[in-house]
Amino acid sequence: MTRTFSAIRRTLLASLSLAMLLVAPPSVAKDEFHLYNWNNYIAPETIKRFEDFCQCDVVQTYYSSNEELLAKIAAGAKGYDMYVPTSNAVDALIKGKKLMPLDHSKLPNLKNIDPRYLNPYFDPGNKYSVPYAMSTTIIGYNDVKMKELGLPTDTWAVIFEPKYLEKVKGRVTVLDDENELFGAALKYLGYSVNDTDDKHWKAAQAVINKAKPYWAAFNASSYIKELTVGNIWLVHGYSNDIFQANLDAQAAKRPFHIVQGMPEEGAVLAVDNMVIPKDAQRPDLALKFMNFMLEGKNSSELTNLIGSGNPNLEAVKYIKPEILKNPAIFPNKEVAAKLEQLRDLTVKQRRLRSRMWTEIKAGH
Amino acid sequence: MPSARVRPVGLWLAASFGYAFLYLPLAIVVVYSFNDSRLNAEWVGFTLAWYRTLFGDDAMIFAAGNSLAIATTASAVSTVLGTAAGVAMHRYPTKLLSFLVLAPIAIPEILMGVSLLIFFVLINFTLGLVSVALAHIAFCIGFVAIVVRARLAGMDESLTEAARDCGATPWNAFRYVTLPLIMPGVIAGALMAFTLSIDDFVITFFTAGAGTVTLPLQIYSMIKIAVTPEVNAVSSLLMLLTLALIIVASKVSPTILRSQEELAQ
Amino acid sequence: MLYLVVFFAIPSLIMVLASFRTPGEFGGLAPLYEEGRLDLNLDSYARFFEETIYARIFVKSVVYALVTTFCCLLLAYPLAALIARSSKRYRDLLLLLVILPFWSNFLIRIYAWMIILGPNAALARAVNGVLAWFGHEPVPLLFSAFAVLVCLVYVSLPFMVLPLYANLEKHDPALLEAAQDLGASAWQRFWRITFPLSLPGVYAGGALVFIPALGIFAIPDILGGPEDSLIGNVIKQQFLETRDWPFGSVLSIVLTVAALAIAGLAAWVARGNLATPSSARQARA
Question: How many CA atoms does the CB half-sphere of A93 hold within 13 Å?
């Protein structure tokens, strides 16, 4: 039996030492820049070029939603030098005093940004944040199927009205995000996505409940896969995802295209921003990175990769023409006027919306 | 002496159905790792490209290595602690002890993750692989303890008593009599702990440090864009690797995996 | 034990305390001391009891967890029994084979199920073909309660097999042979000897399936239909989207207490039926 114990001890020691090896920092004398970003939200070439430029190592970790990021920060996690949250999350972070003010003298390339996206409501003067990339939440659809069924593709009605939904019953998904879905419903009813009137919310809830029986699922993760494969024909989704779905569908030689449809009532615009946490170890590297990403060429690489919207005027020169022409990614002035960014809600509002959302999802 | 075993056909059929249920999705996972498509949704064609991508993907391999290291450490430590807990629970069946051991598995993972994070921050503990391992150990102990206790329940105490009567110290009685008898339970617990740790996402997400990546973290962050067959490839390989490690370990210390009763025969 | 106290008791105390506090404006928790007064209150608890929707989802989750546990038991028992009765050489291999699939990543296993249950896959077409024969509308297998349950059973199976195996392994085959010699049928042998002896294993496996199944959220998120939200999803939502940690803590505490209570109840029932080898022999003497 001693053999058992010594064997156990041996395994324990072996694994502990293995773990220690992996925990011990690499003995390279390079600087490290810790970037906490969405996955696939920066082109690998860009990272490499930055590493050469700054003679440092970029260590990336990922999150897949603003909420995850906020939860981790709220609980006290540190060690990151930069995050890339969406505007409403930046709002929350600023209010929570978690961000470091930016030294604009180190950001000469800030002038490249389209003035429309500077001085946002949550950060006048861009004291804490700088725009990075954008996406809109719109309709994505299988063009062959929609033509067959004769459904409109430029209005939210196709997601909310039973008379259209009947034809695609069980083949529609909507985002599993209370703010996005309520936003879409409010837009459909003609209100602003940031409307906080209880009565309007109740109306939106009613619209959602009426349409719910026709929807296949509330899904924010695997809907793109299903759309590309042809199991789902119509989605409420993010423009980047839908762009990617089309690329995948073409690569798989499917007999249809996945098209982005911008509803005429307007939609939610999500601008992701670069921010520096108050306790960042290397704010100097972070500022360098920010300025680097504000250069036209570097900024354009992401757009070319995933079809994200770009607030950088200089980048336009480097973006592929077919992406520039896409109205869902680069909307014209008319449409742009109807796009709104989501705002953070107060605690009471969040609670009310959360309860309404739970009621919707519990099927009462 | 092992006597003739009863093997009704019905049992075989039912068990085969069970295995089929277990392996059908796995077969798809492995087969699709050769799928010539970015998505994990439909079969397009055969390719080895994903394995090639995997071998060039340092980040993924690093993550897989971390997961393996954490899982081995966590399961080893939690097996030892869990066995102790299981024995304790059996000997002193108080409500409080049961509660303390079982509660970590009852608490929703998000709560556990967030509160562990708050706790680590409170005591200024650097987040990293070690914090993740500690967190995993915390919730694996309960699983091991329950299995060990179940094995102990209804066990013939007379053997242990006889050992004591012959003059063995409590520790020796445990080591040479009880432990071999409960070994299948301990092994079962260790396997469960390993499984739990290697695939945990929620708790790992909250307790990981700024540069810490484990395989589930890496994969889940891909969930929005696409979980490419590279993930299938890394999973298939990880499974094979773990299986190989265990086979090697069992050849090296064959006594571990056998019950002492059999050896005595 | 010290380990557990440190790593479990303290964080849980933090969370219990959190349930009495008010949520911070932007997320997390509001400062504990507000103008020198301790800012604790029972608001969040009151909300839980006031708004019945949460209780209803909770009950639904309990039902799902119970169904999962029961199905796991049905599937796992033959597996565990087969492994327990096998000869030494095969036993370890079979055991490893049971757990091997679970070392692959959770997400792609779920994706594999999405492929199996997809509307164009063989299974769905077969089922709907049969339904069509009866004149019934096609039923979606994916994004439904059925998909959620199948996956719940799938991910929980090894946690039922392993404890059952650990218990069944020590059953003395001599008992069964004796019963056979005395004329008991296979079913009788199982129901009156094997099953009662295995109850501690059943209980252990049941606890290890039921309790985690109550809190799960990933499966309904990925494959559930529009109305398949479980309490785990609501809790996740409170911590992430709503950033109402006190309420999330309340829900979690209720969940934990209920889970442990149900487990405790089951244990109490099982103890009543527990048979040790000696008492089984006594009973048949």
Answer: 31
Phi-psi bin for A354: left (phi > 0), alpha (psi -120 to 50), beta?
A: alpha
Q: Which residues in chain B have Cβ-Cβ distances shorter than 8 Å to A39?
A: 221-222, 224-225
Q: What is the mean pLDDT of residues C79-87?
A: 80
What are the CA-CA distances from residue C200 to residues A185, B148, C197, C211, C214 (Å)? 52, 10, 7, 16, 21
In whole numbers, what is the pLDDT of chain A averaged over residues?
84
Point out the residue among C47, C51, C243 whose CB comes nearest to the CB of A70.
C243
Nearest residue to A272 (alpha-carbon basis) of A71, A52, A37: A37
> What's the gap in Å between the CA of A163 and the closest CA on chain B?
30
Q: What letter would DSSP give residue A111?
A: G
Domains of chain A: residue spans and CATH = 31-133+271-330 (3.40.190.10), 135-268+344-362 (3.40.190.10)
Compare all CA atoms of chain C with the CA of A69 and give the residue at the minimum distance: C240
| ipTM for the predicted complex | 0.77
Q: Which domain holds residue C169?
A: 43-284
CA C246, C248, C251, C256 torsion: positive or negative? negative
First and final C-alpha spacing in chain C? 43
Q: Do A71 and C239 touch (CB under 8 A)?
A: yes
Question: Tens digit of pLDDT for each residue in B172-183?
Answer: 667 777 777 778
Is pLDDT of A340 > 60? yes
Question: Which partners does chain A have (≥3 C-beta pairs < 8 Å)?
Answer: B, C
pLDDT digits (tens, 9 = 90+) for B94-123: 766 677 677 777 777 777 777 777 777 777
Least Cα separation, residue B64 to chain C (angstroms): 11
Q: Please report, in angstroms and rounded to a whole number, the separation of the first and last CA atoms in chain B.
A: 7
Beta-carbon neighbour count of residue C90 at 10 Å? 13
Q: How far apart are CA A319 and CA A312, in angstroms?
A: 11
Give the N- to C-terminal CA distance of chain A in Å, as an integer: 60
* Domain-located, residue B8: no
Q: Which residue has the higher pLDDT, C105 or B37?
A: C105
The answer to whether the CB atoms of C200 and B17 lie below 8 A apart is no
- How many structural domains comprise chain B? 1
Selecting from A63, A80, A228 the residue whose C-beta is nearest the C-beta of B221 gives A63
CATH number of the domain where residue B86 is located: 1.10.3720.10
How close C143 comes to chain A (CA, Å)?
6
Answering whether pTM is above 0.90, one says no
Nearest chain C alpha carbon to B117: C11
When CB atoms are compared, the residue of B109, B143, B250 closest to C215 is B109
% of chain C surpassing 90 pLDDT: 3
Query: Which residue in chain A has the smallest CA separation from B118?
Result: A75
